[in-house]
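Readers of this paper often ask what the protein records in our data store actually look like. Below, we set out a record of this kind in full and without editing:
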Amino acid sequence: MNDLVDFFINQGFLVSPKSINEINEENKKTILQYLKNLKEKPLLINKDIINLAIKNKQITQIKWNEFEKSLVLFEKDKDKLTYETFLKILDIETNKFS
């Protein structure tokens, strides 16, 4: 597990502790390639981003820093609506390319 965390840190990404079990040796390169191909890159990798990467869903535009802020507020139970709205937008965006 620490090797995976180190791998992503060395690539400039942080992995959410809750999501580390979603990544394994088989899918780590797929996830990294997906992240490197994004125009704007997220800093924090969570299960939602991992799922997008594994499914190779293309995203045209998203402000990852705003996504990450909304995730923090969601996890603190301060604002669930914004993060849920981001997830809906991601679902709509990914379905355009499916």
Q: What stands out?
A: The mean pLDDT is 85. Residues 59 and 90 are 7 Å apart (CA to CA). The beta strands are 14-15, 44-45.
